[in-house]
Amino acid sequence: MAGISLKGLRKSYGTAHVIKGVDIEIEEGEFCVFVGPSGCGKSTLLRMIAGLEDISGGDLTIDAKRVNDLPPSERGVAMVFQSYAIFPHMTVRENVAFGLTIAGASKEEKEAKVAEAARILQMEHLLDRRPSQLSGGQRQRVAIGRAIVRKPKVFLFDEPLSNLDAALRMDMRMEIGKLHHQLGATMIYVTHDQVEAMTLADKIVVLKEGRVMQIGAPMELYHNPANLFVAGFLGAPSMNFLEVTVQGVTGDKALVSSPVLAPIEVSAKRGPFAPGARAILGLRPQYLSVAEGGQLSGKVALTERLGSETVLDIETADGKSLVAALAQDAVFPIGTPVTLRFDAEKAHLFQPEETASQPH
Amino acid sequence: MASKFTRSNRTGFLMAGPAVFLIGCFVILPFLFAIAFSFTNQRLMSPNPTEWVGLSNYEALLGLGTLTLEPEKDATGAVVMEDGEPKFPATRSFTRGNPDYPQLAGMREWFSFDHGGSRTFVLARDVVFMTAVVNTFLFVIIVAPVQAGIALGLALLINQRLRGINVFRAIYFMPVVVSIVVVSLLWRLIYDGQSGLLNNLLSAVSFGMIPQIDWLGNPDTALGAIIGMSIWQAVGFHMVIWLSGLQTISPTLYEAAAIEGASKTQVFRYITWPGLRNTAVLILIVITMQAFGLFAQIDVMTNGGPLDSTQTIVFQAVERGYVKKDISGGSAISVVLFVIVLSISLIQRWLTREKS
């Protein structure tokens, strides 16, 4: 088990710069999730750590040792692939023991380690089957089994659950979480699914176009996003963004307003904001409630009742759309005029020049 | 009133019709004719009516016999020596009009071996055909593994991402596109005994130490020369089949192996080779079948000679059927070849079956 440090890591294919200087510190035993939209470089970054991609610049250290130029097998990492990458002509037992076979381990050692891995992953009954006789979830277990027999310092997961159906994905997600507690190993996990990121991670790294947008604990990122991209990327339904004008600044507070929003004073810590300038006000749908005399008003355009919550799509007077997630199972006929209230403490004010990405 | 099902069936049959007709005319009918002719005395052109002769064509082809003889002894009981070797009675005296050995009548010596002072002669009714069978098997046994192996090696080489790799792919594939007759003509020049390319090349690299060899004119080298040229000609074809097999192996398997620390040989042993299993079966069967059909090279380069050292089964079938106008004899050879190839393919299928 070991800590990993990425310092100014870069990757270029010719003139195309895919990873543009990434700095991340991952503590020993930490579960770190790289998350971001497709093409943000998260898988490339993982493959650079694994040694499957060359590093164009910067330093990668595992366990305080620079490993930039070491082949994958000498970095002490194990990897679980999205496509499982289990060998189709070998039984589960042979697959799990593959790394040991390569290293020339004795038969007894292989037996013992395979048995232990099978016990941890509860797949003793699958050991003599062939991959073609396994379901997707079982195959993923085999791939994880192959990773754990070698007792690597670091586990790398490359979107391991993307090929599974929704129910299985949730089960396996929990399994991986438990596995982390059981093994206590350092794990790096790549996903585009924010739910996986939020539930599994000790530390989330949000990436966009080869750059780190923010690093932090899941709740820190959720409650205190550093920029519009992180704010829009995490949370479902995603955050509402309102264009506002700054009326005045006092200390770390700013007074903002818009044609649909009465003046309100919010935190201006992502400043500086100048009076008269444009800004973006971010409001999580969960912190909007339907109440008399709220700060925002509009008409219900769509109601989605999910059981645990009701999602309202509200059209404001200037034709923009706002989403509110209400905890109660309420019925609002389409066209009903409503006013929405929010707590100024829970609102986030962002600089407008930060380009808001399309939340997925 | 026809239902929709039968109507659409009729369209299907109509579309398949031309192909079925052509295959019937030129593959299935000749195949059946060959089997039928092989039991008759049919000739290509003959005023006599065709007669049913049963298995006599096969007997004439495959008839074998053995004869064990003691060396000749003189009046004192000592073995008669001739050129330093014991003298044996002529086999002729047993195979020509000897009423004590009717089963050997008309046979000729194929080969012989000594044991404990006596000598056993293996006699064949058709020695040339036996030579052809041996040559063909020799050809197959050498060409199948060597050609498959070289093709796999080339496929592994050209399966890399390198600049200009397509040029190499094209070069290796080129001989396949050229007609075998043209290739054979060119190689006749290469193998020429006086000023052939191969002789010049060998003499240049050995500074004249290697003498000029008439590759196709020498019974010891002729078959080898044809084997070498045949391997070169078709290796590109099998290389492409191997390549397609290689490219079906998922690159993540190689990445997984790299992370586990597998060496190049381990990667080949545990990932590449098992992944090529089906391709290997296909290639083995295809090469075997093609090799058994060896004809064009022989026809162009040696005509079966010198001294029958390059006779092959198909060459014999054509020679007998069309040159000697003995269609029934030629048909019998084709049927024998068919049985041989079929049995070998079935054995290969069985040996390489998926063991579960």
What is this structure, in a nutshell?
By secondary structure, chain A is an alpha+beta fold. Helix content of chain A is 23%, strand content 35%. Chain A has two domains: 4-233, P-loop containing nucleotide triphosphate hydrolases (Rossmann fold); 240-350, Nucleic acid-binding proteins (OB fold (Dihydrolipoamide Acetyltransferase, E2P), Beta Barrel).
Architecture overview:
The complex is a heterodimer of chains A (360) and B (356). Chain A has helices spanning 42-50, 92-96, 98-102, 107-120, 136-148, 166-183, 194-200, 218-223, 228-233, and strands spanning 4-13, 16-26, 31-35, 57-62, 65-66, 77-80, 154-158, 186-191, 203-208, 211-216, 240-250, 253-258, 261-267, 278-283, 288-290, 296-305, 310-316, 321-326, 337-342, 348-350. By secondary structure, chain A is of the alpha+beta class. In chain A, the strands form four sheets. Chain A has a six-stranded mixed sheet with strand order 6-7-8-3-9-10, sandwiched between helices. Chain A has a five-stranded antiparallel sheet with strand order 13-12-11-14-20. A five-stranded antiparallel sheet of chain A has the order 15-19-16-17-18, with no helix packed on it. Chain A is elongated, with a radius of gyration of 24 Å. Chain B has 356 residues and is mainly alpha-helical. Chain B is built from 14 helices and five strands. In chain B, a hairpin with a 2-residue loop joins strand 4 and strand 5 (118-124). In chain B, helix 4 (127-158) packs parallel to helix 8 (222-247) and helix 8 runs antiparallel to helix 11 (277-292). The radius of gyration of chain B is 27 Å and the shape is globular. Chain A binds chain B through residues 50-52, 71-74, 77-79, 81, 83, 85-90, 98-99, 101-103, 146, 150, and chain B through 250, 252-253, 255-263, 266, 270-271, 274-275, 277.
